[in-house]
Automatic annotation (TrEMBL):
Its main location: membrane. It comes from Pseudofrankia asymbiotica. GO terms for cellular component: plasma membrane. This is Ligand-binding protein SH3. InterPro entries: EmrE-like, Small_drug/metabolite_transptr, Small_multidrug_res. The chain crosses the membrane at residues 30-47, 54-79, 85-104. Belongs to the drug/metabolite transporter (DMT) superfamily. Small multidrug resistance (SMR) (TC 2.A.7.1) family. The keyword Ribosomal protein does not apply. It is found in: Cell membrane. Pfam families: Multi_Drug_Res. Keywords: Cell membrane, Membrane, Transmembrane, Transmembrane helix, Transport.
Length: 108
């Protein structure tokens, strides 16, 4: 499995775990709690594997930035959380920062 695939799977699992964390109701609901307890460790494991070939700054920026942006959108769409212009702008800045690190990280 390539590092990019490992990183992508790590991101998906982190998103599932974070969404389940909200649904766990303080770890009082079984299935969301089991998802959290399963997905976070596997996500970190896959992230650690991806770090064998992807630089730390780039991999972590992509992992955390993509996770943050997608979880924020899930919050708005699935949980009816508020999305202000300021929040949307800040998410855009996160995405730009990830892109900038990726572009900067590929130059040697």
């Amino acid at each position: 499995m390539t590092a990019a695939v490992q990183l992508a799977l790590a991101i998906v699992l982190e998103i599932v775990a974070t969404t389940a964390l909200r649904q766990s109701n303080g770890f009082t609901r079984l299935w969301p709690t089991l998802l959290v307890a399963t997905c976070y460790p596997v996500s970190f494991y896959l992230l650690s594997r991806a770090l064998r070939t992807i630089s730390l700054a780039v991999a972590y920026a992509i992992w955390s930035g993509a996770g943050t942006a997608i979880v924020a959108m899930i919050g708005v769409l699935a949980f009816k959380e508020e999305m202000s212009v300021l929040k949307a702008s800040c998410l855009g800045l996160i995405i730009l920062g990830v892109i900038g690190l990726q572009l900067g990280g590929s130059q040697r």
